[in-house]
Write a structure and sequence with these properties.
Elements lengths: L6 H33 L1 H32 L26 H12 L4 H6 L2 E3 L1 H5 L9 H9 L4 E3 L8 H13 L6 E4 L23 H18 L3 E2 L13 H6 L5 H17 L3 E7 L9 H5 L2 H10 L4 E4 L5 H4 L9 H11 L5 E4 L5 H4 L4 H11 L4 E2 L4 H13 L5 H17 L4
Parallel strand pairs: 1-2, 1-8, 2-3, 3-4, 4-5, 5-6, 6-7
Helix pairs in contact: 1-2, 3-18, 8-10, 10-12, 16-17
Length: 429
């Protein structure tokens, strides 16, 4: 619920806007006077444009300050409205996101990042990868030091990091307090009878045939994860069940028919987004369909992804499957510009965050060093590099690739824009 401004806050905002407008008029008049003899018309136009941008930034900052004041002041009661003891104001999650404001916020943040911070921000690793601890179950000075030295974009937690609900919640809260930027905090928790992270069992994906039931199952999962402080879930499985074999995968999919599975996958995504959990569709393309041609894929699992993309899917995980019939060689999809840029971005129109499958997988480590895999993934169009075998080697490799021009700063900025656009997305709702 949007809180009303107090009289003091209203006066303050009017004063700021009046001052800014007066300054703008003075600058414009002076620029016009000088234009004929010194600047020229094009220079004046540019000057005014630059100044307008400064004015807009100042207004945004003023409004942000006003918003902070509102948060500290009690909200006035509407006439005839009585507050009941214990009542809480619920945020209006149906308010459309101000994309222009979000764009300004993200670009302003990116301007202050060093190359080292940009590169680190593209990695998501386990807490063990940067702390050196065998199993991390708390966040103290060691975690703080690790994040200071390695400002990664996100951390991925597995069941071994969970000992109790209170322990997990405290660990995540402490972790977030150690950084001055938003972190992706991720787990992999699909529907089913797996009780990892203290979440009650739900029906398996293969048993769910109704969108409402899917929303209920993933709503249960998302609500629990959000309560811990998790904001990303590597789910749902957006693959089709293979025609033969793959019994384990079959249970995790919503069936073998893409048209039937598509609305169910979308329902899972919506359920998690409702709790401000970034859903990560996995995996693109599936290992069970790598022998298919591009046209065959368009008529099968791409139907699922296209539906999700059209409905605002946030993230997609790209598999290591070598789709030779599409790519033309044995390059893993996670390192293929054909699969990520040409097909996922350009053909399917996905503009969200692309996450690689774990880069410590044998399909990668058997052929590539950690540095080679990280560089190739970025060149292919990936935004987030998940769990390389050796984080330091991967990080230093990318830094060197930027230094020698193999990877441009603009390429890093493109990924970081998508990453931080997503990270700040829910702050404006």
């Amino acid at each position: 619920m949007k809180k009303e401004l107090t009289s003091r806050q209203k006066r303050r905002r009017r004063r700021i806007r009046n001052q800014l407008f007066a300054y703008l008029v003075l600058i414009v008049v002076a620029a016009v006077v000088l234009a004929g003899g010194y600047f020229g018309a094009n220079a004046v136009t540019k000057y005014i444009k630059d100044y307008n941008e400064k004015v807009n930034d100042a207004v945004a900052e003023a409004e942000s300050n006003a918003s902070s004041e509102m948060q500290s002041d009690p909200a006035p009661q509407e006439p005839g409205q009585e507050a009941n003891e214990g009542d809480e104001l619920e945020p209006d999650n149906n308010t459309p996101i101000d994309t222009d404001q979000l764009d300004v916020l993200v670009n302003k943040y990116l301007q202050n990042l060093t190359i080292e911070q940009m590169v680190a921000g593209m990695f998501m690793v386990s807490p063990e990868s940067i702390t050196g601890v065998q199993t991390v179950i708390q966040a103290g000075s060691g975690t703080k030091t690790a994040l200071t030295e390695n400002p990664v974009g996100g951390l991925y937690y597995s069941a071994k990091n969970f000992k109790s609900e209170q322990q997990f919640q405290e660990m995540l809260a402490n972790t977030k307090n150690f950084v001055d930027y938003p972190l992706f905090l991720a787990v992999a928790r699909e529907c089913g009878d797996n009780k990892d992270f203290g979440i009650e069992a739900t029906a398996k994906a293969a048993e769910l045939t109704d969108a409402d039931n899917v929303k209920s199952a993933y709503g249960t999962i998302a609500g629990k994860l959000a309560g811990y402080g998790i904001n990303m879930n590597f789910a749902p499985v957006a693959e089709v069940a293979p025609a033969e074999g793959g019994a384990s995968l079959n249970e995790r999919t919503f069936g073998s028919d893409a048209a039937t599975a598509a609305p169910l996958v979308n329902a899972a995504v919506q359920a998690m987004q409702a709790s401000h959990i970034y859903a990560v569709l996995q995996k693109f393309p599936s290992s069970s369909t790598v022998t298919k041609s591009l046209e065959e894929l368009k008529n099968s699992e791409f139907v699922i992804y296209n539906t999700a993309i059209q409905n605002g899917a946030d993230c997609i995980m790209v598999s290591h499957a070598a789709a030779k019939e599409v790519i033309g060689d044995e390059t893993p999809s996670s390192l293929s510009s054909v699969m990520i840029t040409d097909i996922l971005r350009n053909t399917l129109g996905f503009q969200g965050v692309v996450i690689t499958d774990a880069l410590n997988d044998g399909a990668i480590t058997s052929k590539y060093s950690s540095a080679e895999a990280a560089i190739a993934a970025i060149q292919a169009g990936a935004d987030v590099l998940l769990e390389p075998e050796d984080y330091q080697e991967a990080y230093q490799g990318v830094l060197q690739a930027v230094a020698d021009g193999t990877i441009s700063k603009e390429r890093l900025q493109a990924s970081l824009y998508r990453i931080y656009y997503l990270k700040y997305k829910y702050t404006l709702e």
